[in-house]
Amino acid sequence: MKTLQSTLLLLLFVPLIKPAPPTQQDPRIIYDYGTDNFEESIFSQDYEDKYLDGKNIKVLYFYSKFTIILPLEAKYFQTTVYIFLTLFPNLEMPTCLLCVCLSGSVYCEEVDIDAVPPLPKESAYLYARFNKIKKLTAKDFADIPNLRRLDFTGNLIEDIEDGTFSKLTLLEELSLAENQLLKLPVLPPKLTLFNAKHNKIKSRGIKANAFKKLNNLSFLYLDHNALESVPLNLPESLRVIHLQFNSITSITDDTFCKANDTSYIRDRIEEIRLEGNPISLGKHPNSFICLKRLPIGSYI
């Protein structure tokens, strides 16, 4: 069976196969798939400037003793991957064949994956938008400590294990927008941006101290959910808070300000959006006395 698969694979890539060239500095990305280790080598720092023109991008793969050159033009690259998956439905695909790996970034957008693929350990950015991922687990990122940005916009995520992001101490941006979440997981401490808009999150799905220790968080997007109240203990670092189009019905004097401290000013906040909620902000004037700008919403 293995012999048959190897033969079919070679036949599939015959028009694209060239003998492996002698060692030289080729300003393109070369991935070496060995039996024991996976290594990524980049031979030119100006790769993006020279080759990201939408037409001439090429990714080279060593397979056996050959170099496989795959054009990233959509109609060729996607067709090649589709045929490969059809011929070998049970064969585990190398992540950087199914996705695109470039200088620490992994692009897995619109490739119909239903789970987070094994990532190169050097990965700093993962873009896995518009796929069919339903769950995130602690194992997905256990050995990828350098991640700084994760984008899972437009998947089918319903559940995230609490320990999923526990080892991602460098993670700065996390997008879970346009999924099926009912609650939020424990979030990593260095987040500067968190986006969970267009989900199904209710207030009981956010723990009281979910954001309290996120002292670097500047942008919080929770609009278009099912929240009945504004999340508690929002950090002082916040600049933008989007809560529009939820089910928020009330606000207290401590929601954004400090009821017992009339001299307190929350000067970092630039924008709070509350339109599309069943609440009249005009009935809660003391809730905004510490703000430099009034929230956007209905005051009638």
TrEMBL record:
GO terms for cellular component: extracellular matrix; extracellular space. One of its GO terms (molecular function) is growth factor activity. Gene3D superfamilies: Ribonuclease Inhibitor. It holds the Pfam family LRR_8. InterPro entries: Leu-rich_rpt, Leu-rich_rpt_typical-subtyp, LRR_dom_sf, Mimecan/Epiphycan/Opticin. Keywords: Disulfide bond, Extracellular matrix, Glycoprotein, Growth factor, Leucine-rich repeat, Proteoglycan, Repeat, Secreted, Signal. One of its GO terms (biological process) is articular cartilage development. Its main location: secreted. Residues 1-19 form the signal peptide. The keyword Chloroplast does not apply. It is found in: Secreted, Extracellular space, Extracellular matrix. Induces bone formation in conjunction with TGF-beta-1 or TGF-beta-2. Belongs to the small leucine-rich proteoglycan (SLRP) family. SLRP class III subfamily. This is Mimecan. It comes from Prolemur simus. The lineage of its organism: Eukaryota, Metazoa, Chordata, Craniata, Vertebrata. The gene is OGN.
